[in-house]
Amino acid sequence: MPNKSLVNILKSDFPQINFTSGEYFKWSFDEKTIYFNPHDDDDGTYLLHELAHAILDHRDFDLDVELVRKESEAWDRTIVKLADKYEVDIDQNEAEMSLESYRHWLHQRSKCPDCGTNGLQSKNTHYKCIACGCSWRANDARICGLKRYRVSA
Ligand SMILES: [Zn+2]
Ligand SMILES: [Zn+2]
Asked: How far is ligand 2, taken at its centre, from the CA of residue 27, in Å?
């Protein structure tokens, strides 16, 4: 398994970061931990993507507009810098699709459950609809490579 050795290389290059296998790919700022799924076909791609979040010092709990910017920043870093360095073939389509599904997910969660208008995010997971005044909480699961885990389109 080539990517098993990639994890080991990253571990020695970034001793300050923990690498833990799990169900999803995720960077946790608080835990200084990259979670990765070793059974994923694109694990090299997503490992580097999470590493990019870590290097860029991305934190949790931002507004959605920030999240989209950070996602695309992390992919840029992955493609422009990390892929060459660690000799991982990044599928540009994979990156684009991942970003696209991310935007879609954010769009969905900002939709008013009552009237379907896109609401305004007041803080983190709280939204308010400007059309009907209803407010709601959106689920705040944030996983990179969402398209794999999305249940409905
Ligand atoms: Zn509404
Ligand atoms: Zn990401």
From this structure: 8
